[in-house]
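pls read this stuff:
=====
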Amino acid sequence: MSSPSDAIRIHNLGKQYRGTSAVEDLSLAVPKGCMFGFLGPNGSGKSTTIGCLTGLLEPTAGTIVILGERMTVNNADLKRRLGVMPETLGLFDPLYAHEFLAFVARMYSVSEDDSRRRVTETAPRTGTNRGPKNDRRIFDRHAEAFGLRCSRDSFA
């Protein structure tokens, strides 16, 4: 099912909360260069799986390998190389686009000088311009596309 060219490999993932299975025996492979997402009804394990994939939750069974490295809750180096697009960007509603990009840079431990340079370089790719007159708040109708572009290629 999986190959060395996979960006993500999950094998027999399981996560239980107080004896109740949230994810049970999930296996999948995502080839490098692909984007993917989870669709399903409430309670089907989407958020729990993403929590395990990002190292926020410790699986109770199975293994997760991302970019050739095993994901654990303590793998900070691997976590810095991930990009995740949440369902909403509600926490960032009051931020301007350049403020959000600077925040993302800080999350990836990018120096302040490098952050300024990368924000300036990234703004045109994300459809925003830096500066109060041309910048727009990211909660407008473009927020999801903006967040996806940031999670995918801004600072990783």
Remarks:
- The radius of gyration is 17 Å.
